[in-house]
Amino acid sequence: MKDVVIFNGNDGQTPQAKMFIETLRDPEKGNYEGDIVIISTELSTDYVAWYESQGVIVFQRRITEVLDEWKEWLNVAVFEHIRMNSPLKYGGVKGYLMSLISEANDSRVGRRYSLYRMLFKLYTNLKPRWRGQMREEFDLWHRKHMSKLNIIPFLQANDKRWDRVMLCDADMVFQKPVSQLFDAVEPRKICVAEEIEPMIPLKEGGSPVYGSNAIVRKRYSEWHDLVQMGPNARHEVNVGVFLGDFNTVLETAIEWRTLMLESNYQSLFYCHVTDFLHEQDFFRLLRDKDKEKFKDLGLDNIYHGCNAAIEDISCVDQVFVRKSNDAIPVIMHFAGGVWQNFSHIKNSYDIPASEVISQ
Predict the structure, then answer these.
(1) Three-state SS for 201?
(2) Alpha carbon distance 284, 271 (integer Å)
(3) If exposure means fewest CB atoms within 10 Å of the residue's CB, which of 129, 164, 165, 307 is most exposed?
(4) What is the pTM of this model?
(5) How far apart are CA 75 and CA 146, in angstroms?
(6) Each residue of 311-321: pLDDT tens digit?
(7) Class of residue 216 by CB neighbours under 10 A (exposed 0-12, middle 13-18, buried 19+)
(8) Which helix (H) or strand (E) holds 113?
(9) Closest C-alpha among 281, 261, 347 to residue 65
């Protein structure tokens, strides 16, 4: 079997990528000798040269080629602009205006849509400076939330070059042979790892995405019975790592893109002040639509150290171990910025990217 490990990132993720590559290649850790690929929306020339010097295949494609004309996404852009620039946590006038945008497609407040259009004119016509800033913020948003979609043109350009494909975030380290994960791949299955919290309200010790699921079920009748909630429902699926056979990964990525960008669900990107959806939520919807296709490898294999999960992980001699069962996960994923809790990771991640490539 020929395998490939793909991760996404731009210039700024190079400190994380350095540790990713080193631990993946380390014979005492990931013990991986196959191809490594970075898919990027924008890498500077010096960074391309550095990655290639590390034996990493570089694939670049600007996301605007995926989203086509950004102006079709102005509602998302305005939402992100206000969210990023509100001086208080959704407070004051900006918080109110944001709530209008988040409710723009709610039929019960249809009259407020005209206020949204007025706000749109304010940002795009009356304030050119804000318009330029809004475009920059939107570019940042789609680089962060859409960059994994570059796996589609990359795999299409390398048809059947590999048998099994793994797609990762850059903010993770490998602790045991990655072959353990590839060997778990089954035909027509996508291997994932679910997060630790049950699908119950956050205030009851549950998942932060419970509210997002509730919105999807309420707004779209076709999802009401598919999206399961409650203590016995499957947990959030973290999109930081998934793998499968070549065809299944490509087909799933295309389905994911279609659900996010080509279906009638764009309003979910700005449907609520706090419970709006992003790319991982749409991946979860795919799982809920076809649960048998998604195989949970468990936190003993892929540990997503976010939210409540951080309480069950300890670091002993720079090795991450689960407190509950002493398991050493194959992958430790520092989701949600929890890397700041571990000094040796923080020291590496805090090195400026420009210094990493000059070392």
Answers:
(1) coil
(2) 17
(3) 129
(4) 0.87
(5) 16
(6) 888 998 999 99
(7) buried
(8) helix 113-121
(9) 261
